[in-house]
Amino acid sequence: MKKLSIFALGLVFACNSSQKVVSEPAQVTKVTDPVPYAESITQDDLKEHLFTYASDEFEGRETGQPGQKKAVEYLKSHYESLGIPAAKADGDYFQEVPLEVSNVPEGSISINDTVFELGENVVSFSSAEGNYDSVIYAGYGIEEGDYSDYKDLDVTGKLVLIKAGEPIGSDGNYIISGSAEKSVWSNMSEGMGKKGELAQSKGAKGILYYDSQNYPRYKGYFGFMKTNNSGRMQLAEDKSETVLIILDENSAKAIYSDIVSEDVPKTIATDLMLNVTSTNDKISSENVVAILKGTEKPEEYVIISSHLDHIGVTADGQINNGADDDGSGSVALLEIAQAFKKAADAGHGPKRSIVFLHVTGEEKGLLGSRYYTDVEPIFPLDQTVVDLNIDMIGRIDPNYKGARNYLYLIGSDKLSTELHNLSEEVNKKYTNIEFDYTYNDENDPNRFYYRSDHYNFAKNNIPIIFYFNGTHADYHRPSDTPDKINYDLLENRTRLVFYTAWEIANKDQRLVVDKAPSATEE
């Protein structure tokens, strides 16, 4: 089931992950020596690409803007020059991604004659209008197994008031999990989406969502949009008539004073007036997708991805070149494609097909990758073996001032023990990079697992690895320029991804998916 973006706002602010301990060695398939082809990935070539791709000419590659159009033409030209065909059957390298921008809403809501201005005690990212004399309080808004907050409730055409979190039993354990561990319903990145979709499936007109802990994040994002006059971008198909209002404690208690302490669902009489208006502008953007067909298993697909966009130009005219984010991943993907093509031209093509996927709209909420997975997958997801996602691999973060040869890996163990083991063995055999799993930890506050394009594959039970060098002082700033890239590290990290893809593509059997973490629950 697709997640409507109106209910997926948590992805803008959060991510989550868990680290598994594995010990069994991977079985790395013995195939043609890939080293000569990996050695075609060079610092000089990466640098040449990046000084063009992250130049001022590309104007920060903002989604749907002229600079992004120049970027996709650059990528397309490279695949054409290599002789790697487009992934689409019609020969078009561009997968159109229809987008809309909801301009920053204006207005207020009135609760029992108290007016709450938008952006203060209430936040909405789309229009919400109408008068209501009651709302349905559905507690935590959860339904799973024998537990349901919607028992005996008819919410058809109503506004539903729900709160973040999940119920705790008299034994102190969480009712849904039956243990001291929280379930996915408490996960910021997915909880609101699951609760919103459930309410919508039951016919609710809209959702009033109370989340005191994370409200400052939503409020801050709204304030940023308003200050920069930038609306929220979404897939065109996500446009929904469903109302979503996020409440802080003051506005939530104005509707139901006992909302913090009481979980029992009920109908609440109230005088509620929604007066929030917004308009939508259509935006056109593109993913760039090429494919090298497999020699033995062409209907199984290894996807290597990076995002082609960045954040454009600042209000005062400075260009955010995005050399690391994600110029580094974009040019790495071009070099990996070249290496695979050299192997294929020498008669050593991969057994499985390799899909080179450059996605748009990552900076706007993983939109291009979600369009590919949820709306128009060019190749069947059930035949997609893995997604190796590259997002920022050209720099050194402040934690590694002395030790340079490192890389953060995220998600390798989430769905496939075999993938994690293979990744470790490939690295030991070829590149000897120090893998850091800090951001793979369940409790890491950065929650990066949900913050790049691999997530849209992972939620569809496709094993992933996210390659990442961490953030730095130039992250999302005009100072993220190609002269600051560590090209020796970029070369070795790019080769790592090539070697990993090579082994996966040439295995006799596809990767085994032996885990089902909460990140993939629907």
Walk me through the structure.
By secondary structure, the chain is an alpha/beta fold. The protein has two domains: 34-101 and 282-506, Aminopeptidase; 106-278, Glucose Oxidase, domain 1. It is 27% helix and 23% strand. It contains twelve helices and 19 strands. It has helices spanning 10-13, 35-38, 43-53, 66-82, 188-201, 215-227, 249-255, 323-345, 367-375, 417-430, 454-458, 487-506, and strands at residues 94-102, 106-111, 114-117, 122-123, 128-137, 143-144, 147-148, 159-163, 206-210, 232-235, 243-247, 266-277, 280-292, 297-307, 352-359, 384-390, 406-410, 434-436, 464-468. Strands 10-1-13-15-14-16-19-17-18 form a nine-stranded mixed β-sheet, sandwiched between helices. Helix 8 links the parallel strand 14 (297-307) and strand 15. Helix 8 packs across helix 12 (487-506). The longest helix has 23 residues, at 323-345. The radius of gyration is 24 Å and the shape is globular. One of its GO terms (molecular function) is metalloexopeptidase activity. Residues 287-499 form the Peptidase M28 domain. InterPro entries: EF_Hand_1_Ca_BS, M28_fam, PA_dom_sf, Peptidase_M28.
Quick structural gist:
With 522 residues, the protein is α/β, with parallel strands linked by helices.
Spell out the key features of this protein.
single chain; 522 residues; alpha/beta; Aminopeptidase; Glucose Oxidase, domain 1; 2 domains; nine-stranded mixed sheet; eight-stranded mixed sheet; 12 helices; 19 strands; 23% strand; disordered C terminus
